[in-house]
Design goal:
By secondary structure, this protein is an alpha+beta fold. Helix 2 crosses helix 9 and helix 13 crosses helix 16. Strand 7 and strand 8 form a beta hairpin.
């Protein structure tokens, strides 16, 4: 009896001591445990997707490629597969599985000293605790903390929420995080399309996805999958027939079908930069944003094709710069990488040349030929973009062992190609909303990520002149106002040289010429006089109002386009001309939604009363208010549109007439032919085009905007407007149309062969009498050069002209030429 009492006392004492030690251990390991409550609001990192305007995927940004799926949307087959593989008692245990722990302990004792990795007994809840709140450290302390956190998680979260976190978080190999991404990665299927075998394979991966890679280790992958199938069968979740069918063959994967993506690398990169600035790195790469952009994939394809064609045409005119490489050892050819920017062109090795052309071989072992006809363009390039003599034989261009780029023709025939060293940019925009529809920032994004459409700052040349003419029209002039086209010299101030701009044709002057003709023929002398008479400060204010510059330079060269701006800014300015003078802001992103579908950004800030949750029952649609600021007089804007239409019909942009629809625009070429521009529009589409070298230098003699940029505009518009009817430019109320002779600006007379409808503001219509001539104040030493000057502030046919400004800062150049 005494022994029994002793044993009971000892047992109680050991129990108390054990409880105390357990309490101390619990207190010790509980200190500093991560807060498990954060899991209640946890949202795993998911992919941000950027879509084009038609819904097509354009780009994805993520640190972990994951598609979040609620557990309620997951099929029971998939859930049961993971439970069979990882935790059969998940829905019954409190977070830890005591029996599994005992089993694992006995097994690990038996494995002691064998060098094999210990087996685990972690429940799904413990794996959630480890994956979200702890590290992968192998230690007793980490396992105890894992168990403690698991018990707490079970008290705070529902079983379904725990399972949802687990199935969306786990890494399953192949760059796939979560079951939805893995189903697409391995089988190109959604979760509800998975078979028993496929679901079992996914459930086999969490332990060691790389060890069960079905391509590298097919036997191990099949064995692990079959084990999961057996576990599902033993749990009664599938039938014997399903199990037998699932284990019949190897693991069969399916390559993920290519997504039909909208290709717009420069556009996508600008969107990425904007999202990064707005939401930060974690917001962009982890928040699972859904971004709808303004991109029109059809117009983007047309923009890329037109710009590439224009750059290639220019480049071919200026000769052959030599092969990609010349090899001493032809065997090296098979290992040469494809040059960036070569696109669909192929790398070829010249084997021999003869009178018929050149024999070539490819890295695949195929052969072909380049006919001599396809080599005649390859005149040697000389200094300042000049070219040498036309080749007489293939040997004048190519030599054996030259490595060149070629484009397939037909019947084994190929054409010699080279990547242009000139570049350019194109922007297409909706002029009414500012939505950017296409951006082409150069020949190839692969070759250069520098965006010439948005990032390059270049002088716009004569494409700036409409800004000067807008200021003149708002100063009381009309399209028929006569301005002197004659040599012009301006005084820039004490101690500074006189400014002496020139016309494109430096020896031909037209005398008194209508304002319209001045812009149609891009007369520099007329524009310089307008800048002086209207005032440089007023011209600069118009340039700033239309967004060409943030702070426009106040010098004479500015009126001829000597300041620097971007293609996007010029497209925006011209958009505000054709849309009737309404302010717009260029936008690439229409809307951003978070992972829950809540709109967190919308480019259009207008509020539409009655647009939400309204069933249509025949009532009139709600009217969305037009809140755009009026920055130009609509009548002035239309006068400018009409004059720019004349540029296409009779002036420097006649190459654009081939589109066959109402279009307007302006060419631009800067000093030494360094930059070429064409900026123009239809009533509902604005396009700006620029061509030039990244390191500014001459494009070559007489390489003007009308020769290079305008054809790109033409080719783009032919595709963009192919299926649309011709739409006339919209005339605002109050504008009066008068039939005039465009060469004189006077009302048309019987027998006049050239007659147009000219736009006038009420009370400014021209008469048949003599007209005053705007000549400005000429500062040349020879008064005869300036013609009859009109003093600043004098009246021109009843129109008051603003006094000219004091001497401005010195000009930096003569600005635009043509």
């Amino acid at each position: 009896m005494r022994v029994l009492k002793y044993l009971v006392a000892l047992t109680l004492a050991l129990g108390v001591i054990g409880t105390a030690l357990a309490g101390v251990a619990l207190w010790h390991f509980s200190r500093g445990l991560p807060d498990h409550h954060q899991l209640a609001a946890y949202e795993p990192a998911t992919v941000t997707r950027v879509h084009a305007g038609d819904g097509r995927l354009m780009a994805e940004y993520a640190t972990e490629r994951r598609v979040f799926v609620p557990v309620s949307a997951m099929p029971p087959l998939l859930i049961n597969a993971f439970l069979a593989a990882e935790d059969k008692g998940f829905y019954s245990h409190p977070g830890i599985d005591a029996f599994a722990i005992i089993r694992a302990t006995i097994t690990n004792l038996m494995l002691a000293g064998t060098g094999r990795r210990p087996i685990g007994a972690s429940t799904i809840t413990q794996q959630v605790a480890k994956n979200f709140l702890l590290t992968n450290e192998l230690s007793i302390e980490r396992k105890i903390k894992e168990a403690l956190i698991a018990l707490r998680i079970e008290q705070a979260l529902s079983k379904d929420r725990i399972l949802e976190l687990y199935l969306n978080e786990i890494y399953l190999g192949g760059g796939a995080y979560g079951v939805a991404a893995a189903a697409l990665q391995y089988f190109n299927k959604s979760l509800d399309e998975l078979t028993v075998a496929e679901a079992a394979f996914l459930a086999a991966l969490p332990k060691a996805p790389n060890n069960y890679n079905p391509h590298r280790y097919p036997e191990a992958a099949k064995a692990r999958r079959d084990w999961v199938v057996e576990q599902m069968l033993s749990a009664g979740w599938i039938t014997e027939e399903q199990a037998r069918e699932a284990m019949e063959g190897p693991v069969v994967t399916r390559r993920r079908s290519p997504t039909e993506m909208a290709v717009a690398e420069y556009f996508a990169e600008e969107v990425r930069r904007e999202l990064l600035a707005r939401y930060g790195e974690s917001g962009l790469y982890q928040s699972g944003l859904s971004v709808r952009t303004s991109l029109d994939p059809r117009l983007q394809a047309a923009a890329d094709a037109a710009l590439r064609k224009g750059l290639e045409n220019y480049d071919r005119r200026h000769g052959w710069r030599g092969p990609v490489a010349h090899l001493e050892d032809p065997a090296v050819f098979k290992t040469l990488p494809r040059p960036a920017g070569s696109g669909d062109w192929r790398l070829a090795l010249v084997v021999a040349t003869d009178s018929a052309g050149a024999k070539i071989a490819f890295q695949t072992g195929e052969t072909g030929e380049i006919p001599f006809e396809e080599l005649k363009w390859a005149r040697p390039t000389l200094e300042d973009q000049q070219v040498g003599p036309v080749p007489k034989t293939a040997a004048d261009v190519l030599k054996p062992n030259d490595v060149v780029l070629v484009e397939a023709l037909d019947g084994g025939r190929y054409a010699l190609r080279q990547i242009p060293n000139v570049s350019g940019g194109l922007v297409a925009m909706d002029p009414h909303t500012g939505r950017v529809l296409a951006i082409s920032g150069g020949w190839s994004y692969e070759m250069s990520q520098f965006d010439r459409a948005l990032q390059a700052k270049r002088q716009p040349g004569s494409s700036f002149k409409p800004i000067v003419y807008l200021a003149a029209l708002d100063s009381g002039m009309t399209p028929s106002t006569l301005v002197l086209d004659a040599p012009f010299v301006a005084d820039q101030g004490p101690g500074l040289p006189k400014w002496k701009p020139t016309n494109y044709n430096t020896t031909k002057f037209s005398g008194p010429t209508p304002l319209r003709v001045g812009i149609e023929q891009s007369k520099n002398m007329m524009t310089a006089r307008l800048g002086q008479v209207v005032g440089l400060d007023k011209v600069a204010s118009y340039a700033e109002r239309l967004g060409v510059y943030d702070e426009a330079p106040r010098n004479y060269a500015m009126v001829l386009g000597a300041g620097e701006t971007t293609v996007l800014r010029m497209a925006t300015a011209y958009s505000m001309i054709v849309n009737g003078g309404k302010r717009i802001t260029p936008t690439l992103i229409d809307r951003v939604q978070d992972r829950h579908g809540v709109t967190i950004f919308r480019a259009d800030p207008r509020v539409c009363e009655g647009c939400q949750g309204v069933a249509w029952e025949g009532q009139a649609p709600p009217e969305i208010p037009d809140t755009r600021e009026q920055v130009l007089d609509p009548a002035t804007a239309y006068q400018m549109v009409s004059m720019l239409q004349g540029v296409v019909e009779r002036g420097t942009g006649t190459v654009v007439q081939a589109v066959g629809k109402p279009l307007a625009g302006k060419t631009g070429t800067t000093n030494d032919y360094q930059d070429n521009w064409f900026v123009g529009f239809s009533p509902d589409l604005t396009v700006a085009v620029y061509i030039g070298f990244d390191q500014p230098r001459t494009l070559g003699n007489r390489e003007s905007g009308g020769r290079n940029a305008a054809p790109i505009f033409r080719d783009f518009m032919m595709e963009a407007l192919a299926d649309q009817p011709g739409i006339a430019f919209r005339i605002p109320p109050g504008v009066r149309l008068v039939r005039v002779n465009p060469e004189t600006g006077k009302p048309a007379r019987p027998g006049d062969r050239k007659v147009i409808w000219e736009a006038f503001k009420p009370g400014t219509e021209p008469g048949f009498g003599d007209s005053m001539v705007v000549s400005g104040v000429d500062s040349s030493d020879d008064d005869a050069q300036g013609g009859a000057s009109v003093p600043a502030g004098s009246a021109l046919g009843g129109v008051s002209i603003a006094p000219s400004m004091p001497a401005p800062p010195p000009a930096s150049g003569t600005g635009g030429l043509y």
